[in-house]
Amino acid sequence: MSEAIFDVQAVVGDLAAARQDWRNAQQRYSETGGRELPAREAMADIMQGLRGVLFPMRLGPSNLRQENEDFYVGHTLGAVLQALHAQVRLELRYNARHNDAASSSALDASAVHIVRDFAEALPGIRRLLDSDVVAAYEGDPAARSVDEVLLCYPGILAMVYHRVAHAFYQTGVPLLARIVAELAHAQTGIDIHPGARIGAGFFIDHGTGVVIGETAHIGRRVRIYQAVTLGAKNFPLDAEGKPVKGAPRHPTLEDEVVIYAGATVLGRITIGRGASIGGNVWLTHDVAPGSHITQATARQDLTTH
Amino acid sequence: MSEAIFDVQAVVGDLAAARQDWRNAQQRYSETGGRELPAREAMADIMQGLRGVLFPMRLGPSNLRQENEDFYVGHTLGAVLQALHAQVRLELRYNARHNDAASSSALDASAVHIVRDFAEALPGIRRLLDSDVVAAYEGDPAARSVDEVLLCYPGILAMVYHRVAHAFYQTGVPLLARIVAELAHAQTGIDIHPGARIGAGFFIDHGTGVVIGETAHIGRRVRIYQAVTLGAKNFPLDAEGKPVKGAPRHPTLEDEVVIYAGATVLGRITIGRGASIGGNVWLTHDVAPGSHITQATARQDLTTH
Amino acid sequence: MSEAIFDVQAVVGDLAAARQDWRNAQQRYSETGGRELPAREAMADIMQGLRGVLFPMRLGPSNLRQENEDFYVGHTLGAVLQALHAQVRLELRYNARHNDAASSSALDASAVHIVRDFAEALPGIRRLLDSDVVAAYEGDPAARSVDEVLLCYPGILAMVYHRVAHAFYQTGVPLLARIVAELAHAQTGIDIHPGARIGAGFFIDHGTGVVIGETAHIGRRVRIYQAVTLGAKNFPLDAEGKPVKGAPRHPTLEDEVVIYAGATVLGRITIGRGASIGGNVWLTHDVAPGSHITQATARQDLTTH
Amino acid sequence: MSEAIFDVQAVVGDLAAARQDWRNAQQRYSETGGRELPAREAMADIMQGLRGVLFPMRLGPSNLRQENEDFYVGHTLGAVLQALHAQVRLELRYNARHNDAASSSALDASAVHIVRDFAEALPGIRRLLDSDVVAAYEGDPAARSVDEVLLCYPGILAMVYHRVAHAFYQTGVPLLARIVAELAHAQTGIDIHPGARIGAGFFIDHGTGVVIGETAHIGRRVRIYQAVTLGAKNFPLDAEGKPVKGAPRHPTLEDEVVIYAGATVLGRITIGRGASIGGNVWLTHDVAPGSHITQATARQDLTTH
Amino acid sequence: MSEAIFDVQAVVGDLAAARQDWRNAQQRYSETGGRELPAREAMADIMQGLRGVLFPMRLGPSNLRQENEDFYVGHTLGAVLQALHAQVRLELRYNARHNDAASSSALDASAVHIVRDFAEALPGIRRLLDSDVVAAYEGDPAARSVDEVLLCYPGILAMVYHRVAHAFYQTGVPLLARIVAELAHAQTGIDIHPGARIGAGFFIDHGTGVVIGETAHIGRRVRIYQAVTLGAKNFPLDAEGKPVKGAPRHPTLEDEVVIYAGATVLGRITIGRGASIGGNVWLTHDVAPGSHITQATARQDLTTH
Amino acid sequence: MSEAIFDVQAVVGDLAAARQDWRNAQQRYSETGGRELPAREAMADIMQGLRGVLFPMRLGPSNLRQENEDFYVGHTLGAVLQALHAQVRLELRYNARHNDAASSSALDASAVHIVRDFAEALPGIRRLLDSDVVAAYEGDPAARSVDEVLLCYPGILAMVYHRVAHAFYQTGVPLLARIVAELAHAQTGIDIHPGARIGAGFFIDHGTGVVIGETAHIGRRVRIYQAVTLGAKNFPLDAEGKPVKGAPRHPTLEDEVVIYAGATVLGRITIGRGASIGGNVWLTHDVAPGSHITQATARQDLTTH
Structural domain tally of chain F? Predict the structure, then answer.
């Protein structure tokens, strides 16, 4: 027999040792021996199906005819809910892995309830997304039609994913929610935490670099541009100096606020109804309703040489 | 029969009601019952083919030999043009949907003309892209060869898509143009409106977060870095207070301008030949040829504590 | 015979002429007539395999069981190393194309050595990535588990690709390294040059718009946020005015430095151990260990109207 | 440039000359320049869809649930009928290619009618196939369940395809019918001409080598085994010595006939109700109802040496 | 809205009625609402994996190297056994569907045992297949190497599938066994019932049309040619006139028997060791060891005219 | 860690032992450690390409237009010849594996010559196939057009593969030839040895079960039906009792012979020009030109009871 070119066996052994060290360090011992976590690919397929369920004639199969919409929606929804059920079970079991009292059948029943609630939320999600599409069409002079908006705008795609992710977040499967959020982030460069609460008619133009934090609260008909951050200024710490989980730490934007590109809005502050924040502004305090904030003078301080 | 786990039927009904409300609100009634819009997936395939047509030995199939280049180019081009023709017809028909006078055969003839004009533009596009590759190679000290540039640089990929999208924009299929632009945006984080006019030898380094507006006009041998915005300061409004479509509102960059990372250039201003704009500069007025603009003092105003 | 709708033949001819002009201008003549460059698609497949090799139970196939991990790792590694060997040979031959003395068998032997060295580096890469996962888990209050971090965080994905790309960069296949880096850039918006040296426990939060230059040197337990640039201020030029290749021109970050979103750090400066740099800061000089730099006053200089 | 290894150009030219000679000899000139014939691959996809439409819980997708059957059936049927419509148009246009009077719109209307008629025939086809499944289950002592029969038996698969092909044959698209028949032939080795009329409860066991001719007429509850031929003895010729098309020339099998493996039954003869024909029998004359035909003596005429 | 071209809704309703009639007639009511039967596609994938497990360097992936065989075999086997386990469970549950006493956990435990037994049988199957390959190589003067035999001969492919199917048949999953047998039948035209017991060194040349019945018993080093039938003459009936299941009704072939093309051997007869049966012979009685049976005279009874 | 369900490790070990025993018994030691044999899948892809090269508008891609035929043919042929070259090299090296004198470069040069010769033979193959199509169209009263014949008839598909396989057989790659023959056998049930010499205008109707041996010689305009065997009566043996390789042992059919279904023609006999052989006839002696042979009396010897 010919000699091996690469010593695969040795590398396999060293990699196994590295994994073992990690498992020892993390005290991670699989209880089933099999896959224990939801899968990004599965969630990507589920989202692909949901896009068609929500907008069958625009994001569904190209050969669909309107008279057959409901067949397509029903068939796809049936398959999607089953696939989702499997992923929800994986997350629930994973969450309960240190909890001996959690019976398998109770977890399974929870999974069914979560998927049912999600299914019932879908028509409301569609209506919210319709309001987002109208907002984009009305907010961008370059938009020629609502169809173009739905087909092309990354901000709309990000909201399709976010409104689904937020529904997951609310019903107790935050890991699935996070996976969905990152699927949108990878495609659009828009990073919205699934916990963020966002009202109807939200429009993100261009979008690359937008970051919206977990406890942000956004009213109706708000518009933001690329590279806007709605972040935390700092984290409340507990007695041990560790961040307090879930503490409100991101801004509240009231209805009809506009924030231009590159602005950074930090902390649990409130931007009042109808206020606008200029490009590149760095903001850490409340803004009264109807105000217009710009970084006027500093921006003129340029040197020509 | 076993009971249904999820009440798919009910959700299907509610989703149908939501769609009906939308159609009523938007007065959208399909005339054909079938798909009326171009498809993102179809345009993605067309672009994949065009990349090979433009650079057969670099972006075509890995087993291609140089002596057979023309066979590959001709075969692929024939298939691409047919597929493009179908998408062009969809857009033309969609655009004419409120225009009873538009005959089907006239639209079809227009579609043929558009595709023919596009096909004839391809060799010129290739030559422009060659100039972009050279510009990247000469503009980046890290670039080892023109081949590395073509293979790796997201700025080059963005320009391949933009130069094609701009050709679509000019010949009357702006929705196809926009789809192509967004395909590049999703891959590179570079958002160039298809309407932007860009001269030979254009180089975008790194690129994430770049936004270039519809009426921007960029000369030859210009270089920009990541997160540069060439945007509108505000929109001219008409008597009803609505934005005037297509009004020139983005900057003009003359030949050999350089704009460093994070700079924001807004409004119908002109940056003169050979000028350079420093990183993070916020600029809303003309700049004379040969000037070097930096935000010198403000940047030193740091607090150490 | 029916007439041709599109004059494919003519366009093929014009495209061939454009290619010929390019080849003449670049003095590029293929010596083999076949593909001479590594392929992005091949490297994407290789990276997909390596992700599974490094984290079999998390990023490997969903039906893998723990008792069979080593079979999967060994089988996948064997296939990956062979595929990598082919790409390494392509790069070595391409690099040697102007060097008549480079014998084919010597290049092939070099390719084997490079792949062997890379294989041996994999267990170490895994251990470094484990430290990155822990850093993300500990650095982000929103992170619920190390598994969520590995599954969802774009900053981790970027580091998986970077640590592999850096190994390629160090062993003499910089083009493969660059392709790998751009694969991560396209997915995450994080642009790390393969040359950058990065210590254990590195965490990038959100990540979109991050740029890290070739000669950057990052210590242990460093944390950065979205849109941070670690760039060059200017390039040392040689006697002919051309940039000197590989000259150290990017910052050094000592252990436990934190840099907040949007900060720009330029030039061969050193940020001392434990220092923190505030959001949007523009920094071009050294910072002492333990300092906290913020852009305090300028940020308050806002105009309300 | 390197020399070409294979002279592709020369072979391309010689192949083009061969095609031109064929087109001249056959006087075949394409009128449209495009594909003029139905596609085997398209019909294979259509049949795959129809199998699911007819037996959703057995031959449809594995994740289908019974409560969602109709959604699946409706969605798939809608897509199948559209795809079929395209193929029917191709055949009708091809058939009319020498008929200048055939208007395009008339052909399109015919295509719609054909597809409508076919769709209406589907429930009846399903009922006939149910009778075939029962016949197989009752006729084969090895069959454990009707489900096994539907899932495994090549004779059933052949009948699914034949009953569809026969419907095509009857409605004026014999080429589509033939393509469907050959798809089954390739999978099962059972060659049934789409013209054959076959009653309910037909069972073919094993099946390889079965041939059933165009004008065969088979009653109810008939059973045949592998390698049975129901063929023509000879063809009636017209005045010019050419075969008369469509003349009845294959056998009639009345209800409940059984024909054992390898028997050859030729010509326009009638096998009476309930008769059985033994293995390898060669039969060219009528058989009375209830008879049992075997090739008794000849079969014993063996030589041992 | 445009009118529907095809009345899909009506056909869906009629098909549902047909299904309902069938379910009523067959008293088939799904207990779970989901798929209850093993899937042909799943078994095809399993067989594809097993072919590689059994002959890794010949039927495994083309880039496999010998030093990594065991990794490939182990990884593939692990995945195959899991997939098989799922199919075995489906069959066991299906078989127990009328048996209320069958607990789910008992069925699952049975499934594990069946798969374990099958896994342990694999090395023995490989050794038997090796003997078949040698027999083919030695039995066919046209065979150039054992590799050619393994790669090309449909008789070998049929035996790979049969020896696996027979193992399934023996361990209590006859439906899986039947599916595997039909997969081979469809590819080769060779129809071997999984129940048939076949000794080492079996060779089928050409193969199309071969049928071997459930209770056939074939010794070692037997050779048969295309279109040979080893069938039942008639079935023993029980008191109700129904066939007795599993009664021995097919021939026994002792070691080193040869049967030439087209011969039909029927009933529970024995062909003695080393006997040969000539082409097209019809045989229903025992044959002594060493005999040579031909259909000498009848075959000369030809008419020339 | 959880316990393994299946003891994969043990089975892997036993399978490795079985492989080792085989390699010892066959004295098979890989010299390269890698794949040494041509691949069936690779040949299937090559044949798929060649079908399009030979009949671009009928078996090529459905969107091909006639004006672009040559581009398609040239591109596909270029790719096919390269892929074929790789397979030819594998066979040549395999054949030379016991021949130390065979230099690698000499084998490579031989491979180029073989592929070149094959490429030059393609136009002639196309012309022969055209004659086969015409023969089928004229020989079958059911054929409606030459296009239907090319699209549907398994006998034509078998000849496309055979004429290619025969070219491989003649130029020294008999294993590739055999693989191609078996690809057709699997699809059609027609088993033609690649060595058989077949004149223009050959037509096989229905085809299942046809077997044509290696040294058969078939003239022009011959027609045969399903289950016809052109076989060897016995093999000439050498002094050691082993079959003499390649000895002429199959029939010669002169021009315009017709052989009806199920006939068996054995040995090195000649069927004279224009003779016809009736169904099921068993023939082992020469037949004079123009004769009509039928098995008249035996076939009437039926028993009715």
Answer: 2
